[in-house]
C-alpha cells in the first residue's frame, strides 16, 4: 500500500525526467511487511511551482490518468494535479468498481471498450497490481420493454465487436445459482444481457498505480490544494488561484466530479450538469459464491463479490439534487428489500459499511469532454454513475486533446457543443440502473 508524504530522495530536482517507481519483490514485501516500518513512498510531495504547462483540477482516476498519458504519450511533464482532499477521495474511491462496455450507442460502446482494453493491460503498463477480475456482467430484464432494450444493446455491441448476448432465465440461473428465477416473484427475471468481458477491479489500486506512474514521469501531485479561482484574460486561461498560492498556466483541465459545475463556473463556462448523491454499501466477507456482476434496473440494485469475499451493493442516485455524502437509513432499507427479492438466501448477511459519492448527471447520460469557449480551459466532466470505468480512455483522450488541441475521434461526440447543436448521445438505456 502506498505511503503518502515526502520522498525527495526519489525525485529529480525539477521533476522533468522519468524516475523508476519502486519495485517490490516477494522478499522486499516480507522485509517491509514484517521487519521494517519504512515503506518506500509511492509518490513525492512537491513544492507548488509558480507556473505549470498544464494544471489538472481533480486527483481522481481521470485527472491522474490524463497526467500520466500527457507525460508518457506526449512528453508533457510540467504538469500539476491538484486535489482539495487526498488522491482518490471523490468518485474514484466511492464507486462500486464495475467495468463493462455494453452501452447502447455506438459512440458509447467504442469509447468504453477502449477503456476496457486499457484496463486489461493496466497492471503490466503501470507495474502495479490493480486486481482486474473478469467475472462477466449480467443486466437482468424484468419486463418486455427492458428485454427489448437488452436485445437492442446486444445488437449494437456485436456490431462494434463487443461480446454481449441476451440469455434466458435458465442460463441466468446457471451463471448465478443464488438468483431467484421463479415466475411468481414481484419482478420475475425474463432474461438478461450477458457481457462476458465485464468485471470488477480494485479501484484505489487504480488511483495509486496512476499516481505512482505519473509521479515517476515527473508530474507534481498536490493534495490538500483547493482551487479558489481560475483567471481568464481576453478569452483565454492565464492562471489558477489556490489555497496555497497562484499558479500561472495556459491550460486547465476540469477533471472533477461533484464539484465540476463550481470549477467550470470559475472559468465562466456553464455546463448542463446536476449533482446527485449515489449511495453504496458492503457486507461482511463470505466464501466466494457470486461469480458474476448482477445488475437489476427495475429493482434499482447491482451487486458483485470482491476478491476478499464482501458483497458490494449499489443503487440508483438519490431522487434529489444535493452535495451531501452522508448515507441514509432509507437507502439501506430499500436496498436490503430489493436484494432479497433477487437473492432470498442473503437474508442473514450483515452490512458492514455504507457511503455515498457525488454524481454529475447530464441530460443524455453521456459525459462532457473537450475544449470550451474559453481557450485553454478543458472539460472532462458529467460522469454520472459511470466515470470510474472510463478513467483510462478519458485520460488517454484528454491528454491527446490537450497535446494536439484537437478532440480525437473517440470523444468527438461528447463535446459541450452538442447541447447547443441538439446532437445528444442518449445513453440512459445503458446507465447502470434506472434513475
Ligand atoms: O454504469 O456499470 C455502471 C455502474 C455500476 C455502478 C454504477 N454505475
Largest sheet: 8 strands, mixed
Total individual domains:
2
Report how far apart the termini are: 36 Å
Alpha plus pi helix count: 11
CATH class of the largest domain, named Alpha Beta
Low-confidence stretches: 1-16
CATH topology of the largest domain: FAD/NAD(P)-binding domain
Query: What helical percentage do the residues reach?
Result: 25-40%
Strand content: 15-25%
Architecture (CATH level 2) name of the largest domain: 3-Layer(bba) Sandwich
CATH superfamily of the largest domain: FAD/NAD(P)-binding domain
Shape by Cα distribution: globular
Instruction: Identify every distinct bound molecule in the structure, by name, code or SMILES.
Output: pyrrole-2-carboxylate
User: Spatial order of the strands in the main sheet?
Assistant: 6-7-5-15-16-17-14-18
The overall pLDDT average reads 93
Radius of gyration: 22 Å
State the secondary-structure class.
alpha+beta
How many β-strand stretches?
A: 20
Amino acid at each position: 500500500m502506498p505511503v503518502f508524504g515526502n520522498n525527495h530522495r526519489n525525485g529529480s530536482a525539477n521533476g522533468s525526467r522519468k524516475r523508476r517507481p519502486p519495485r517490490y519483490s516477494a522478499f522486499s514485501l516480507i522485509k517491509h511487511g514484517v521487519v521494517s516500518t519504512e515503506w518506500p513512498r509511492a509518490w513525492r510531495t512537491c513544492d507548488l511551482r509558480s507556473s505549470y504547462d498544464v494544471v489538472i483540477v481533480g486527483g481522481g482516476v481521470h485527472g491522474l490518468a490524463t497526467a500520466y498519458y500527457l507525460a508518457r504519450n506526449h512528453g508533457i511533464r510540467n504538469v500539476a494535479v491538484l486535489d482539495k482532499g487526498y488522491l482518490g477521495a471523490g468518485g474514484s474511491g466511492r464507486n462500486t468498481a464495475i467495468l463493462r462496455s455494453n452501452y447502447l450507442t455506438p459512440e458509447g460502446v467504442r469509447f468504453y471498450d477502449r477503456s476496457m482494453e486499457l484496463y486489461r493491460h493496466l497492471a503490466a503498463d503501470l507495474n502495479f497490481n490493480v486486481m482486474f477480475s473478469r467475472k462477466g456482467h449480467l443486466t437482468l430484464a424484468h419486463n418486455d420493454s427492458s428485454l427489448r432494450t437488452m436485445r437492442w444493446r446486444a445488437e449494437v455491441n456485436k456490431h462494434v465487436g463487443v461480446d454481449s448476448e441476451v440469455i434466458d432465465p435458465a442460463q441466468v440461473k446457471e451463471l448465478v445459482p443464488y438468483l431467484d428465477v421463479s415466475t411468481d416473484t414481484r419482478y420475475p427475471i425474463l432474461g438478461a444481457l450477458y457481457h462476458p468481458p465485464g468485471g470488477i477491479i480494485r479501484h484505489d489500486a487504480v488511483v495509486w498505480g496512476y499516481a505512482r506512474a505519473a509521479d515517476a514521469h515527473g508530474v507534481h501531485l498536490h493534495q490538500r490544494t483547493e482551487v479558489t479561482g481560475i483567471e481568464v484574460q481576453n478569452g483565454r486561461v492565464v492562471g489558477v488561484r489556490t489555497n496555497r498560492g497562484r499558479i500561472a498556466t495556459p491550460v486547465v483541465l476540469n477533471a472533477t466530479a461533484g464539484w465540476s459545475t463550481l470549477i467550470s463556473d470559475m472559468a465562466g463556462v456553464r455546463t448542463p450538469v446536476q449533482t446527485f448523491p449515489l449511495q453504496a454499501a458492503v457486507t461482511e466477507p463470505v466464501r466466494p459464491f457470486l461469480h458474476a456482476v448482477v445488475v437489476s434496473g427495475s429493482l434499482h440494485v447491482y451487486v458483485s463479490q470482491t476478491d476478499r469475499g464482501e458483497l458490494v451493493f449499489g443503487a440508483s442516485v438519490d431522487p434529489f439534487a444535493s452535495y451531501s455524502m452522508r448515507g441514509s437509513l432509507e437507502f439501506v432499507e430499500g436496498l436490503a428489500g430489493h436484494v432479497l427479492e433477487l437473492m432470498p438466501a442473503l437474508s442473514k448477511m450483515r452490512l458492514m459499511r455504507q457511503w455515498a459519492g457525488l454524481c454529475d448527471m447530464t441530460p443524455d447520460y453521456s459525459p462532457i469532454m473537450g475544449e470550451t469557449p474559453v481557450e485553454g480551459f478543458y472539460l472532462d466532466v458529467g460522469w454520472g454513475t459511470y466515470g470510474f470505468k472510463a478513467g483510462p480512455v478519458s485520460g488517454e483522450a484528454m491528454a491527446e486533446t490537450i497535446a494536439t488541441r484537437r478532440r480525437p475521434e473517440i470523444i468527438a461526440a461528447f463535446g459541450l457543443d452538442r447541447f447547443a447543436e441538439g446532437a445528444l448521445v442518449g445513453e440512459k438505456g445503458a446507465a447502470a440502473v434506472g434513475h
